[in-house]
Every structure is written in C-alpha cells, then in structure tokens.
C-alpha cells in the first residue's frame, strides 16, 4: 500500500520554512509517497510552497473549517467584510465568535484527527512554542503514527521542554550545533537532516567565481534579528575600495535604513523579489554575508554554496558544519567590528586562484552533502525506517 505523509506546522506565505516544506513535499512525491499539507497558519496558493507542489494537496486548518462548517463560513465572511476584505475569507475562521459560540477548538480536533489518521507519518515544521504543537503530538501518539519534529527556529536553553516531547519519534535537526542537552535528556531520538537548494539546477549553472570579491549581498528580512543594520554599519566603515553591498529583502528596518544610507551609491536596496530570481541575482554577486545571531540553517547559506559564492558569516546555525574543510573560514562576531574588519580584509586580499578554489570547494561540499539527491535519500530513509 502506498505510504502517506502529513506535513504540518505554521507554514505561511514566504520564508525558509515554506521553501523547506516545499522541498520535502516534492521529494516525497517523487518517491511515490502520498503527501498532504495542512498548515496551522494562514496559507494561500500564493505561498512559496505552491510554486513547487500541486495546489490540490495544500490546505490549512482554517480553510478546512471554512469549507466544512457552514456557520463558521458565514461568520468568517462577516469578519472578512468587517476587516475590509483583507486576506482571504477563511483567514477569519478562528474569529472570537467562532471560538465562543461554535465549538471552534472541537472542530479543529476533528480536522486534525482526520488528517493524521489518513497518514502513516507526520512531519511538523515549527518551533517548540508553535500553535497546536502539543495537540498534534498527542493526537499522533494516540493514533499510533510516527511524528517527526523539524525544528525551524533555534532552541534556546531557557525554553520550557514539556513532557509530551517524549512522544516525538525523532527530531530532525539541521546540524549537531542545533542539539540541546535539555531535549536529549527528555528525548534522545534525533536525526541530522540539513537543507538543499530547491532551485538546484539554477544555482549549479552559476559559473565558479574567479574575480576579486567586491560585490556583497545580504538576503532575507531587513531586521535586527538578521543583523542588517550592524552589517551595513560595519561595511560603511571598512569599504575603502568602492565595493558594493546589496540588500535583497524587506522588513521592519528597511525604511529606516534606506533613509539613513540615501545617496550612498555603494549600498543598494533591492527590495523583495520572487525567490525564483535569487540564482540570477547571486550570479552577479561575489560574497554572501550572514549576520544573524541565531538561525537553524540559514537556508540561503545552502543556496550560496550551490552557487559557488564566498560566504562571510557569523558562527550561526549549521554554517560551521556546512563550511568545514572548504577553506571558506571567514567568521566574524556580530558585536565586534574588529572581527568583521579582519575578515573583510582577508577577503579583499584573496588572489584569484584562492577565490576560485574556495568557490569550487563550496560547490563540491554542496554536491557531496546537500544536493537534492543526497537529501532526498536521507529523508526517505528516515520516514520509511
């Protein structure tokens, strides 16, 4: 009988979690495993996940409630009117009226139980604090199904580790750096499963880098979390040779930083672009800068490796493990300008043959450890074992 997997968690419109859910779904479908996606968050067909998997297998808790319960549908439409038609009508299925008068949580249980019962295994992509995390673990356990927890945010030592985590079949961590003794004591079952570039072919077509490093890029949220403001400040101080830094993305600090650096021709804000354009953009860049303090990946680091770009990074998430034995050892401390300056100067002093060697090794490490083929094989072994 054909195996079936339910992929769930707060899968939304865009981000690393959405891309990763899309990759996992595509890999499972290509391996003749049936997949259903049920988001616990707001999800539409405009999501990044919809660019790589069929729309017919994508849904969400609120969408299912809206579709299956007429009274909730009526209340949702009224709430939609009240909110001036923002989002889709089913986004309001969990409104106050539904929760107070129409047994909303009981109906959520029905939707979850039905979806889980139809699957052989559940993959939850989210954080320990994600909505419905405990409920889905308990239902999966009661129905005798496997539950795999893909942690998509850094696990902090001061978090609360509840006893229900003992019922997780295995945690799927990006690297050993994501392991926490507190979780291992509670549940020692884990697998290491890193990420892969969903648009692999595009990134592998980027020529190996052979030119001096002068075009830098930041990718993702323009935010304090990503260190955008700190990196731009450091870059401004060290840039003596008319180098350029590009900021690809949107976020809370974009307007403030655009105003701050208005008129600086070496700091270019590109705004948010479709993910499908990233490979062609990276082709024109020399070095990806990762300035985060906490990540599980990050996903763009894998894409940069596939594209053969040089990487200047904090020691965050899985990056140290990914870049081991590549000679790409340009690490800086986010709160230490001197460490950034030292690594920046090292990059600028690289000879062409050294740049080419690093670019080549980054790609080879990707092909050997993180390619679609390698990660698909690992995922299938985990799910079917």
Note the main attributes of this structure.
alpha/beta, seven-stranded parallel β-sheet, six-stranded parallel β-sheet, 16 helices, 13 strands, globular
Low-confidence stretches: none
N-end to C-end Cα span: 16 Å
How much helical structure, as a percent, in the residues? 40-55%
What is the radius of gyration? 22 Å
What is the count of β-strands?
13
Number of helices: 16
Give the SSE order as H and E letters: EHEEHHHHEHEEHEHEHEHEHEHEHEHHH
State the secondary-structure class. Answer: alpha/beta
| Mean pLDDT across every amino acid position | 92
Strand order of the largest sheet: 3-2-1-4-5-6-7
Description:
The protein has 385 residues and is α/β, with parallel strands linked by helices. The strands form two sheets. Strands 3-2-1-4-5-6-7 form a seven-stranded parallel beta sheet, sandwiched between helices. The chain has a six-stranded parallel beta sheet with strand order 10-9-8-11-12-13, with helices on both faces.
């Amino acid at each position: 009988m054909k195996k079936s997997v339910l992929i769930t968690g707060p899968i939304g419109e865009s981000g690393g979690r959405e891309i990763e859910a899309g990759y996992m779904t595509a890999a499972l479908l290509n391996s003749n495993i049936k997949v259903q996606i049920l988001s616990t968050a707001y999800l539409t067909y405009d999501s990044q996940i919809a660019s790589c998997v069929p729309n017919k297998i994508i849904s969400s808790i609120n969408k299912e409630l809206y579709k299956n319960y007429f009274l909730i549908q009526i209340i949702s439409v009224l709430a939609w009117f009240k909110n001036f038609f923002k989002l889709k009508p089913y986004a309001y299925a969990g409104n106050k009226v539904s929760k107070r008068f129409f047994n909303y949580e009981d109906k959520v249980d029905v939707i979850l139980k039905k979806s889980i019962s139809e699957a052989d295994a559940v993959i939850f992509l989210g954080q320990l604090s994600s909505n419905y995390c405990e409920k889905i673990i308990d239902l999966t356990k009661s129905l005798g199904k496997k539950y795999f927890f893909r942690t998509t945010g850094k696990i902090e030592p001061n978090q609360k580790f509840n006893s229900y985590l003992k019922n997780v079949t295995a945690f799927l961590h990006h690297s050993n750096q994501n392991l926490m003794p507190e979780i291992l004591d509670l549940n020692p079952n884990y697998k290491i499963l890193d990420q892969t570039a969903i648009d692999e072919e595009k990134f592998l077509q980027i020529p190996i880098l052979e030119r001096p490093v002068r075009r830098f890029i930041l990718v993702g949220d323009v935010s304090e979390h990503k260190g955008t403001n700190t990196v731009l400040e450091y870059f401004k101080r060290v840039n003596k040779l008319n180098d350029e830094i590009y900021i690809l993305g949107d976020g809370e600090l974009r307007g403030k930083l655009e105003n701050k650096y208005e008129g600086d021709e070496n700091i270019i804000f590109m705004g948010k672009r479709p993910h499908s354009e990233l490979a062609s953009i990276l082709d024109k860049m020399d070095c990806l800068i990762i300035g985060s303090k906490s990540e599980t990946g990050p996903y763009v680091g894998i894409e940069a490796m596939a594209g053969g770009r040089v990487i200047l990074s904090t020691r965050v998430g899985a990056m140290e493990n990914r870049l081991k034995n590549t000679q790409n050892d340009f690490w800086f401390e986010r709160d230490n300008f001197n460490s950034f300056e030292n690594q920046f100067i090292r990059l600028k002093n690289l000879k062409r043959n050294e740049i080419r060697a690093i670019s080549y090794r980054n790609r080879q490490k990707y092909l050997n450890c993180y390619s679609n083929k390698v990660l698909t094989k690992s995922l299938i072994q985990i799910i079917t074992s």
